[in-house]
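Sanity check record (used in CI):
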Amino acid sequence: MLLSCFIPREVSMLFVQVVLPVFLIVFSGFVLEKSSRLDFRTLTITSLYLLAPALVFSALMKRDFDLSLAGDLFLFMVLYTAILYALSRGLAALLGFDDESRGALLLTTVMMNVGNFGLPLTYFAFGEAALEISVLTFVLFNIPLGTLAIVIAQGSRSSLPTALGNMAKIPIFHAVILAFFFKWLGWHPPEFILRPLDLLGQAAIPLMLVMLGMQLARTQWQSRVGFFSLATAVRLGVAPILAWGLTAVLGIEGLTRAVLILQTSTPSAVLPLLYALRFGGRPDLVAGTILTTTLISAVTLTILLYLL
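Expected output for Transporter:
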């Protein structure tokens, strides 16, 4: 009752109906990890190599593919990533960050959680109608996540051909290529193939959120208020404004515009933390920013949904 005096009813309802369910599933993964340490690697492989590709393939095959939509989303992805990269790199130089801290800032501001947070969020917000757009957004933003993020994490030790080779190993891209090839041939898989793939794909979204909660439970958070404040301001403050402006400049409207803005305004991605742990750098800064942006996004995403 007290909250209703300060928060519009529409905002509180959006939080309860769209944002809160996402965080409840994340929290269930957090509790599960704290109470019984599960084999995170097995769940990761299951999600990456089976459930997520099934989701992408079935979503693309069930809908008519719009080539102009893919072109718009690709151009948006390139401009969005380039501008955020330039901004974050400029801020790091201005503030005198060392190479490792600069890499951590880039990983946590340029790379957003477009998959295991963004996909469920857009689904809860806009339903089945948004699935094709959100899946294409997810796939396209996995290009910088699977290439540029690896290059950033490795620093001067990086190799672009190696990064591209690693991207080519991600089964999600195989599913996209296969779906586009079948559509080009005009061949539609029979129902006995699509139905199990559709069921597998439905399991991908909740598992992604549970895994996010498990990863957050494993995060070792250290207080670096200045760094976390800067990274959070860029990821949750500047990024939505940038997405809003780019969709206007590119003439992207309607549901596509809403999905793009919402899905690219999500917290910092979890995958760069694995890169930081693998290649060195500052995993403490990356992990702390992931935790900070995930918690604060409960407020920022609710406000953004209201504005959309």
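The mean pLDDT is 83. If this sentence no longer matches the regenerated tokens, the check is flagged for review.
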